[in-house]
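Sequence in, structure out.
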Amino acid sequence: MRFLKESANNDRGDASADAIVVSLPVSPEEATHTSPSSNSMAFFLGGIFILLLLTTIHAASEIVIPIVLAFVLKLVLQPIFRLLVKAHLPRALAAGVIIIALLSCIIGLGTLLSGPAASWGEKLPQGLPQLQERLHFLSSPMEKTQKMLVQAEDLTKGAGPKVVPVAVQGTRLSDKLFNGTQALASGLFTTVLVLFFLLAADDTFLRRLVEVLPKFRDKRQAVDISQAIEQDISSYLLTITAMNACVGIATAIVMRIFHVDDPLLWGTLAFLLNYVPIIGPMIAVVIFLLVGLLVINDFWTAFMPAAVYLLIHLIEGSAITPMLLAKRFTLNPVLVILSLVFWYWMWGFAGAILATPMLAITKIICDRIQRLSAFGHFLEG
């Protein structure tokens, strides 16, 4: 890149000095010897730093999550931004066009789905007796399981003092919904604001980083990592988004075939939940099963929406998506699940969505730094 060439001349003096240092004789013992105390201290300080970092991002999740989400969205929208810039649009104007289009899609889809979602929210409490009646064959196993849990709890308590239950008055549902809506609106505003300036700045951060780094090798490595993250993660997220859209469209068609109302709502739900590996589709299967039991009269046909959705997900998740992403990179599925569980515990549903992209970014960085290459190989599937 252009700003690498400008820094090449400044490093010639460093290169000659390095050549002098390399020419000095070094014994094999001096070259390979590392103090155990220094390694232990570095490991100890690194562990403390990681614990402090995790504690900080957990405590500041309300501001950290929108910023991380903005960086991920920037990687997804970067190709569109580059096309607009090539069409001779100023960077600020191109970023504004993307932000307006993104907000229009979110607001339009939210307005379109708010009515059906509210109506299904009212149907669910009214349909609970019907669900209990249609699932009466599960009542006996559930009662036995409940009795076993009560007996196990009694055994663990032993002869200890009995705990007197105290009734605590919880907050009203309307207050919880208001607080949740307010937090969502605040997070959306922060995400959009940060995303606009990230797109408008483009390569400014990378240029400043290259100017600060002292060695030409470090400058080239920084550019290489930045380009790899942008290309690979952008390709990964665009592929996942396209496949999730296909799953959502197929789910909406299935719901229409089985005469389930508001197929657009269920297609959108399948699209969003498919971003969360394994757990998201499991939640979708349970939701579609309950919806089928509420709407479809025939008992066995009521299972078909959930069954067909599961088949669609298995085809997409086990065959099509891995085939499309295998050329870029693969991740260890066990580590994907562990990352999913950890970030869900840290940040909730937003953390579950961001877990896989953050793990992929970590692997790309480790693959291009020699000291971390072993850890990058460990993350590979």
